[in-house]
């Protein structure tokens, strides 16, 4: 019994040794690692892939704060192997935050290039994916005087805009999820350079994994209303657009609830009604109605509803024309019928001809600090 | 029996946790994928069917327990037939249980290696795990159950983390269809049922319980707890990923954990996966302890530590053979088939033996 504490200590030392010794096997020394924070993929010559990566420099006195490496390869991982030869650091993808795809590559399909993203356990499912108008490499290569760390800049930009519902969230997880789901198509934001900055230019619509069409960024909020329910959003609407001196309403703190109803026409084809209920606060109004009076407030609500319905109908017609179901109408249709009927319907073929009706019901919660 | 065995009996509380922890294993990482592949849409519902099968099996074990009045299964068997005839059965049980223990450990180690230490030899990690298992299994079931209760509390805190997925969870992704687009097969069924195995080891704890232990009732509660947690995790996974996406993910639960992002830390799946070591240890300890109990029937005078040491080394050596993840999973499937056989046939054999000896006794009196 006297030896018990000694034995225990020995056992403990043994355990600790075993616990820490694996660290000697797979060493990861911070100074010797190149943390790839953003990568871009473009279609190169002869169907090759032009891969560019950017990573922060450990030695920040060297002038430039980041390294940008680029080359042609057949696949993303082959590029990584080759790129390692250009760098004194071991490249790792655990800190990858953004991946950009050139427009021409997106048109050809992205799934093949996303295989490694799904397979490699070190890559986070939260990596943000975007399409770049033009060449993605040049966006990544460029220096942004106000934004020394480009990956953080793009990540912040996308994060903020998707929080405000101006663009949909597009991560590796959402893209793959929607690609494999049978009633919805994936989407991504479209980025472009604007002088010394990057700007979100639109929402890329995909059919399968191929870029098909685009919705302008200004219509992002209406797209969000149609795609799902959310809280927190801002919207600026021009009422009686086209006429000179049309009024403008700015609505904030929007809470949106979407419901999709499916009914059958006399011929048995599905008819879809998208019902969106909105609540929000008016923080700017340039029109003549007095928002204190219930009747006039109601008139404004009706005007907003009408404008939103118009925009939504145009957007849905546009998506139907391009055969991309980015708002997931198919999911609602699928969930309203039997499995046999759903499979028989061949939704992708049926989708462009389906009748879709939009209803908006906007409620002004308050009209700010002004009483008229 | 071992000199280290405590004479204290197991309490219902400890049995509930013991059964839950023995059943909860590494297969949970691939369970949603296995279900989606075999049963397709809403495959999570099958968890309820598996739970029912477990309960039926548990009642069968209960019949042996009640008829034998809580006597050890070895006592029951040895009363009915000569020991020499039972040796092949004992050796078979020993073999299956120790190999199952080692395969579960190896699978955990291989996944761990994949996500954290790709070039370190996996058997290096297994030494650490096996040492822990060895120290636990020589303590006797009473102390094992107390340790496992502690391990339970070291892992159960992870459950509320599932709330993270509510935002991206969608009921509509579950679809209203049941069991479509799957490819059910008996092999898949067995592979999935393997994630429920472990409950049958209560056969070995008969002599360490008394009436107050409420062995069968507590075990059923333990496996219902497991079925509840499995079902909950599977529903979340089915509503988080789309069906065809889920069908091609090797470890959906790992991907789910990789999605968690705290404001101060990202990529926490390695930390979470580390905590699953505890549930794995519980499963491995129980299998190897059962093998040890059986071995002590064959080698009555052997030292417990020696037997435990030999079994752990045996399991360690066996674990060298299947060296890829798919090999291990294939082996696990094969041994799960044997174990399912044991889970049903062994209690059935006990019931028959008990009925037979009872009749003989009545005839004699």
TrEMBL record, chain A:
Protein name in UniProt: Spore germination protein
The organism of origin for this protein: Paenibacillus taihuensis
Localization terms from the record: Membrane
Name of one Pfam family that matches: Spore_GerAC_N
Membrane topology according to the record: Lipid-anchor
Domain Spore germination protein N-terminal: 26-192
UniProt GO cellular component terms: membrane
Keywords assigned by UniProt, alphabetized: Germination, Lipoprotein, Membrane, Palmitate, Signal
Protein family: Belongs to the GerABKC lipoprotein family.
UniProtKB/TrEMBL annotation, chain B:
Record's keyword terms, sorted: Germination, Membrane, Transmembrane, Transmembrane helix, Transport
Record-level GO cellular component terms: membrane
Pfam families: Spore_permease
Coiled-coil region list: none
Ranges annotated as spanning the membrane: 12-32, 44-68, 89-111, 123-144, 151-169, 189-208, 220-243, 271-290, 302-322, 334-356
Stretch forming the signal peptide: none
Subcellular location, record wording: Membrane
Membrane-related topology note: Multi-pass membrane protein
Entry keyword Transmembrane helix: yes
BP terms from Gene Ontology: spore germination
InterPro entries: Spore_GerAB
Predominant location category: membrane
Protein family (similarity comment): Belongs to the amino acid-polyamine-organocation (APC) superfamily. Spore germination protein (SGP) (TC 2.A.3.9) family.
Name this protein carries in UniProt: Spore germination protein (Amino acid permease)
Species of origin: Paenibacillus taihuensis
Lineage of producing organism: Bacteria, Bacillati, Bacillota, Bacilli, Bacillales
């Amino acid at each position: 019994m006297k030896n018990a504490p000694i034995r225990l200590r020995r056992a403990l030392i043994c355990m600790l040794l075993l616990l820490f010794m694996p660290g000697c096997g797979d060493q990861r020394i911070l100074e010797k690692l190149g943390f790839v924070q953003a990568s871009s993929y473009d279609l190169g010559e002869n169907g090759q892939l032009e891969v560019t990566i950017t990573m922060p420099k450990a030695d920040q006195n060297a002038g430039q704060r980041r390294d940008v490496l680029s080359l042609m390869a057949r696949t993303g991982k082959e590029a990584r192997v080759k790129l390692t030869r250009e760098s004194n650091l071991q490249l790792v993808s655990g800190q990858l935050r953004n991946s950009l795809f050139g427009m021409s590559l997106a048109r050809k399909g992205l799934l093949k290039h996303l295989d490694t993203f799904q397979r490699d356990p070190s890559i986070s499912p939260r990596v943000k994916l975007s399409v770049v108008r033009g060449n993605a490499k040049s966006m990544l290569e460029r220096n942004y005087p106000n934004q020394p760390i480009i990956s953080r800049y793009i990540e912040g930009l996308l994060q903020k805009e998707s929080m405000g519902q101006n663009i949909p969230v597009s991560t590796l997880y959402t893209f793959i999820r929607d690609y494999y789901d049978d009633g919805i198509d994936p989407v991504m934001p479209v980025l472009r350079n604007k002088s010394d900055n990057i700007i979100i230019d639109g929402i890329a619509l995909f059919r399968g994994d191929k870029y098909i069409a685009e919705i302008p960024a200004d219509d992002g909020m209406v797209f969000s209303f149609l795609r799902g329910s959310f809280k927190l959003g801002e919207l600026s609407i021009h009422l009686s657009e086209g006429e000179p001196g049309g009024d403008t309403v700015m609505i904030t703190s929007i809470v949106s609830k979407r419901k999709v109803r499916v009914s059958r026409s006399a011929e048995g084809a599905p008819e879809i009604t998208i019902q969106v209920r909105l609540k929000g606060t008016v923080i700017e109004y340039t029109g003549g109605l007095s928002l204190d009076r219930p009747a006039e407030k109601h008139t404004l609500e009706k005007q907003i509803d009408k404008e939103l319905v118009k925009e939504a109908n145009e957007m849905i017609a546009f998506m139907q024309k391009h055969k991309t179901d980015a708002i997931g109408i198919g999911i609602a249709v699928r969930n309203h019928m039997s499995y046999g009927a759903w499979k028989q319907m061949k939704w992708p073929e049926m989708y462009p001809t389906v009748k879709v009706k939009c209803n908006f019901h906007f409620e002004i919660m308050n009209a700010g600090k002004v009483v008229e | 029996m071992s000199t280290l065995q405590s004479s204290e009996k197991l309490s219902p509380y400890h049995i509930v946790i013991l059964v839950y922890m023995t059943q909860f294993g590494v297969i949970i990482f691939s369970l949603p994928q296995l279900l989606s592949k075999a049963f397709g849409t809403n495959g999570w519902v099958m968890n309820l069917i598996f739970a029912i099968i477990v309960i039926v099996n548990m009642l069968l074990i209960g019949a042996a327990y009640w008829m034998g009045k809580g006597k050890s299964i070895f006592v029951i068997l040895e009363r009915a037939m000569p020991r020499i005839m039972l040796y092949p059965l004992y050796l078979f049980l020993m073999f299956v249980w120790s190999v199952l223990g080692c395969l579960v450990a190896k699978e955990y180690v291989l996944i761990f290696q994949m996500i954290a230490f790709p070039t370190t030899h996996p058997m290096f990690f297994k030494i650490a795990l096996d040492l822990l298992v060895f120290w636990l299994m020589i303590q006797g079931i009473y102390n094992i159950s107390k340790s496992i209760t502690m391990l339970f509390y070291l892992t159960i805190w992870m459950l509320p983390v599932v709330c993270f997925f509510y935002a991206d969870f969608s009921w509509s992704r579950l679809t209203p269809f049941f069991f479509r687009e799957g490819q059910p097969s008996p092999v898949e069924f067995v592979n999935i049922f393997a994630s429920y195995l472990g409950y049958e080891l209560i056969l070995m704890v008969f002599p360490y319980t008394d009436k107050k232990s409420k062995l069968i009732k507590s075990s059923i509660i333990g496996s219902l707890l497991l079925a509840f947690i499995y079902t909950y995790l599977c529903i979340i996974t089915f509503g988080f990923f789309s069906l065809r996406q889920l069908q091609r993910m090797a470890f959906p639960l790992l991907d789910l954990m990789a999605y968690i992002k705290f404001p101060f830390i990202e990529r926490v799946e390695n930390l979470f996966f580390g905590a699953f070591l505890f549930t794995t240890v519980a499963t491995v300890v129980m299998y190897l302890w059962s093998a040890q109990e059986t071995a002590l029937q064959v080698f009555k005078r052997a030292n417990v530590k020696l037997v435990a040491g030999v079994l752990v080394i045996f399991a360690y050596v066996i674990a060298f053979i299947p060296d890829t993840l798919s090999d291990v999973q294939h082996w696990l499937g094969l041994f799960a088939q044997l174990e399912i056989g044991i889970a049903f046939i062994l209690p059935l054999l006990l019931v028959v033996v008990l009925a037979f000896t009872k009749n003989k006794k009545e005839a004699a009196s």
